[in-house]
Amino acid sequence: MEEAPHKRGLAKMPRVDAIWDSALFQREYRRLAVLEENRIFCRHGLPHLLDVARVLWILNLERGCGIDREVAYAAAILHDVGKATQYASGEPHEVAGERLAREILEGLPAACAFAPAEVDAVCAAIRAHRRFDPDAAPLGQLLYQADKASRACFACPAEVRAACSWVDEKKNLGISV
């Protein structure tokens, strides 16, 4: 007899778990946490990464894009992996992130490997996530939109104090996205 759906829980994502467990990912994640320790707004820790992943997945389902769940989550979890490098050297985080994401994805154990086309898609989405491109692949468009929609700018203390550098067109200024 099949188990009831409400008792099954979500399907496991071993490839995404392998990204999280990657020594390189963990190094960059810890570097970023230290660099953003006193930042009052727009931190790039796990809550943000998971918010982006969940919004991206919802948009994917609503629009019928057919993107694999682990590919969607991989792009979201990795999209800011270059942020610490940007803070340290000034290299744009989408450029550093694409390079680091490729190294992480290509370094995963064989049992958790993404196909080369999936690696390329994730890396292209990371490279393009800072500016909306109507000609980008669906993963890139959704990552851009999810990244912006994941922020509650309308309730941010930096927004109230005009300390945010984002232009209004990029801000999420309402609950509905």
Structural topology:
Layout: H1 5-8, H2 14-21, H3 23-35, H4 46-63, H5 69-78, H6 83-89, H7 93-106, H8 116-128, H9 138-149, H10 157-160
Helix pairs in contact: 2-5, 3-6, 4-5, 4-9, 5-8, 6-7, 7-8, 8-9
Pfam families: HD
Organism: Enorma phocaeensis
Protein name: HD domain-containing protein
Poorly predicted runs: none
Structural class call reads: mainly alpha
Could you tell me the mean pLDDT?
85
CATH architecture: Orthogonal Bundle
Instruction: Return the string of H and E elements.
Output: HHHHHHHHHH
Head-to-tail CA distance between termini = 41 Å
Described by the principal axes of the CA atoms, the overall outline is globular
What's the domain count? 1
Q: How much beta, percentage-wise?
A: under 5%
CATH homologous superfamily caption: Hypothetical protein af1432
Q: CATH class, anyone? A: Mainly Alpha
Count of extended strands: 0
Q: Determine Rg (CA atoms, Å).
A: 17 Å
CATH topology: Hypothetical protein af1432
How many helical stretches? Answer: 10
- Indicate the percent of residues in helices: 55-70%
Q: Major beta sheet, specifics?
A: none
Give the tags:
HD/PDEase_dom, 177 residues, HD_domain, HD domain-containing protein, HDIG_dom
Question: Mind explaining what this structure looks like?
Answer:
- The chain has 177 residues and is an all-alpha fold.
- It has one domain (12-150): Hypothetical protein af1432.
- Helices cover 58% and strands 0% of the residues.
- It is built from ten helices and no strands.
- It has helices at 5-8, 14-21, 23-35, 46-63, 69-78, 83-89, 93-106, 116-128, 138-149, 157-160.
- Helix 3 packs across helix 6 and helix 6 packs across helix 7 (93-106).
- It is globular and about 45 Å long.
- The mean pLDDT is 85.
- InterPro entries: HD/PDEase_dom (IPR003607), HD_domain (IPR006674), HDIG_dom (IPR006675).
- Residues 45-152 form the HD domain.
- This is HD domain-containing protein.
